[in-house]
Amino acid sequence: MELNDHANRLHAVLSASSSARWLACPPSAQLCAVLPDKVTDYAREGTCAHELAEYKVQKLLGNPA
Questions:
Q1: Residue 49 to residue 64: CA distance in whole angstroms
Q2: What does the radius of gyration of the chain's CA atoms come to, in whole angstroms?
Q3: Is 63 in contact with 54 (CB distance < 8 Å)?
């Protein structure tokens, strides 16, 4: 996967980064789901970190990565 592919992924409706909001106001998750994702440096960094972790887990499991 190319690093720029993360822009094509959809963000989770119940993301950890917004859990304070949707735990306090559950309907806000559905309301925010219709808004376009805002790509920030923090979002790119988080995506890269998740992809690196996924790669390492796949390698440890002996799966092609």
A1: 19
A2: 14
A3: no
Tell me the residue ranges of DSSP E strands in the chain: none
Closest CA to 28 of 38, 43, 14, 42: 14
Q: Where are the domains of the chain?
A: 39-65
- Give the separation between CA 8 and CA 58, rounded to whole angstroms: 22
According to the model, what pLDDT value does residue 26 have?
94
- Whether the pTM exceeds 0.85: the reply is no
How long is the chain?
65
DSSP secondary structure letters along 1-57: --GGGGGGSPPPTT-GGGHHHHHH-THHHHHHHTSPP---HHHHHHHHHHHHHHHHH
1-44 residue pLDDT tens: 444 454 456 678 898 888 999 999 999 999 988 888 788 899 89
